[in-house]
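Here's what a typical entry looks like (Na(+)-translocating NADH-quinone reductase subunit F):
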Amino acid sequence: MTPRLEQALDKLYTALYTGKLNPECCTACAVGTICDTVDAWKHFTDTHGSLQLNYVGKVNEGFGRRLYGYLPSELLEIEAVFLKACGYELPLTRKSKRPQHPTSQETLFNGMRAVIAFLCELDSVEDVMEIEQNLLHTNLSSVTHATV
């Protein structure tokens, strides 16, 4: 596991389980959480949820600048994955479709789950949540077979 992935996972899990993850707040969303609740990333695009880099984003991308290990384009992709999995229509505007309960545990877990899969894909690492589920299934199967 790469250091950036490990740090991102730790921050996302902590935010989810302490109730600090919020898809509609640029410092508490997936990328805001990864960026230590700093909103600098939002200046890379003109619209929340857009994959289109603006001038500032293109300049930073061109120089290879990374925030918390991620390029501006990667941060925008991470946020788009999170918002879509939470039930938002992108890009986010006043008229965009939104989830009925944007901060419910189920909505946030779905968003976090999608982000984790995407982060693992970015770093060419097997999805850590899939590994966890496989281990859980294997352990449950062995317990079931042992008690029969």
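The radius of gyration is 17 Å.

More examples are in the samples folder.
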